[in-house]
């Protein structure tokens, strides 16, 4: 099969590994290429002088020259969606036409749908996160573009299959109007060659260590863990993520978390280490007795899976990808989202239970290796592509019609103008 993977965001810098959505796309592309498929990945060029295309791990990476050759926030990408789609349409009208196109994130999906609106090439879409879910869980801390939610709803009517990464997302997509048969659940994968129990661990002192991984911004749940530390006892909470360590002093959220720790009397137990390169994260997971996953929203549950692959039990909120990944009382413990008291008591009991942590850790490694490898993720997508290609048909409704019905926004006007 000829497979096109579309991400409207720019890729990661060339001097660091891909993380999150870009890691997902890169690993899926490499696995599909290894299975013999002709794969091309499309992302926006965000710097001058970058090569237009290059071969990476068996697939072709193409940088789309749309918009300024500079980093842009998501909201500023929306006006470029139509031009992105037109560029793809011209590209695919040449000597390479995909059999199936897979859009990633809502911006990438809109560009793919724009490119294919007058063809019978099927579209598969992975949202990676949904604005309506983020709004529900984050409330007034949600800072996504105002047009995102209506455009995501429009996009669901322009694709053949939507790929959910957890069961909560399956339910959300059906509430958005998709038939259940038009939603496939394919969880993300984990690099088990990078994340495994054997290897070096980051330095630590004699106290038990709880590790939390995530950006220093609203919704990552670090504040819940800091409040819970009052109930945990003699242990340290290490928070990895955010800006580099040397920039933490001037970071507003880092200051807020430190002030919260002071007010709760646990300042000497909370340590912020800043950004950790992804290729060094395994050493931090292995240094922990427990990894705590308490974000207010998580579709993929990547941190919980990486920790489990390293043989570390997870205590996490029972929501999203975390609820799917962690088997309660088998690979860790699940607690009700936002229940700080239960979170603290659960962490305290697990830290005191050496045998329980050992058993959870072993079961966690087995679960990841059986159910969450990149080979398994790519295999599921390969079967999905074969199914939609086999029933190839024209889209029921072109994207421009779908967008016009729910929304008259600046985004729509910019698409029309382009």
Automatic annotation (TrEMBL):
The source organism is: Micromonospora mangrovi
| Ranges where the Glycosyl transferase family domain occurs | 204-355
Answer yes or no on keyword Transferase.
yes
Question: Which keywords are on file for this protein?
Answer: Glycosyltransferase, Transferase
Give the InterPro entries listed for this entry.
Answer: Glyco_trans_1, Glyco_trans_4-like_N, Glycosyltransferase_grp1
Q: Which domain of life is it from?
A: Bacteria
Q: Where is this region: Disordered?
A: 395-418
Q: Which PANTHER family match?
A: SULFOQUINOVOSYL TRANSFERASE SQD2, TRANSFERASE
Q: Which residues form the Glycosyltransferase subfamily 4-like N-terminal domain?
A: 20-193
Q: What is its EC number?
A: 2.4.-.-
Keyword Glycosyltransferase tagged: yes
Q: Please give one Gene Ontology molecular function term for this protein.
A: glycosyltransferase activity
Name the record gives this protein: Glycosyltransferase
């Amino acid at each position: 099969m000829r497979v096109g993977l579309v991400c409207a965001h720019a890729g990661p810098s060339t001097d660091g590994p891909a993380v999150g959505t870009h890691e997902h796309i890169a690993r899926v592309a490499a696995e599909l290429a290894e299975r013999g498929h002709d794969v091309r990945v499309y992302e926006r060029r965000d710097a001058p002088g970058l090569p237009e295309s290059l071969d990476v791990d068996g697939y072709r990476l193409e940088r789309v020259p749309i918009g300024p050759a500079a980093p842009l926030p998501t909201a500023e990408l929306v006006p470029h969606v139509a031009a992105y789609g037109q560029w793809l349409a011209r590209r695919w009208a040449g000597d390479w036409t995909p059999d199936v196109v897979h859009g990633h994130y809502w911006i990438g999906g809109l560009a793919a749908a724009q490119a294919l609106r007058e063809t019978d090439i099927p579209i598969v879409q992975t949202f990676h996160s949904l604005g309506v879910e983020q709004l529900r869980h984050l409330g007034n801390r949600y800072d996504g573009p105002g047009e995102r939610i209506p455009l995501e709803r429009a996009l669901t009517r322009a694709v053949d299959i939507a790929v959910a990464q957890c069961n909560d997302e399956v339910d959300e997509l059906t509430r958005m109007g998709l038939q259940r048969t038009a939603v496939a659940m394919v969880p993300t994968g984990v690099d088990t060659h990078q994340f495994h129990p054997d290897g070096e661990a980051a330095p630590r002192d004699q106290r038990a260590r709880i590790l939390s991984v995530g950006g220093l911004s609203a919704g990552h749940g670090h504040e819940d863990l800091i409040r819970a530390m009052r109930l945990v006892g003699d242990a340290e909470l290490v928070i990895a993520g955010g800006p580099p360590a040397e920039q933490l002093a001037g970071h507003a959220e880092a200051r807020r978390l430190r002030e919260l720790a002071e007010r709760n009397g646990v300042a000497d137990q909370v340590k912020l280490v800043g950004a950790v390169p992804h290729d060094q994260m395994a050493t931090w997971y292995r240094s922990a007795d427990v990894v705590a996953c308490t974000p207010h929203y998580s579709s993929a549950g990547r941190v919980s899976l990486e920790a489990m692959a390293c043989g570390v039990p997870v205590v996490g909120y029972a929501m999203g990808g975390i609820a799917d990944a962690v088997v309660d009382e088998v690979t860790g413990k699940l607690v009700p989202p936002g229940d700080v008291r239960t979170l603290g008591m659960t962490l305290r009991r697990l830290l005191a239970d050496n045998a329980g942590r050992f058993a959870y850790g072993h079961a966690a490694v087995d679960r990841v290796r059986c159910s969450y490898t990149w080979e398994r993720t790519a295999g599921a997508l390969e079967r999905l592509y074969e199914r939609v290609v086999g029933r190839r048909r024209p889209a029921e409704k072109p994207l421009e019609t779908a967008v016009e019905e729910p929304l008259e926004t600046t985004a729509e006007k910019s698409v029309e103008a382009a």
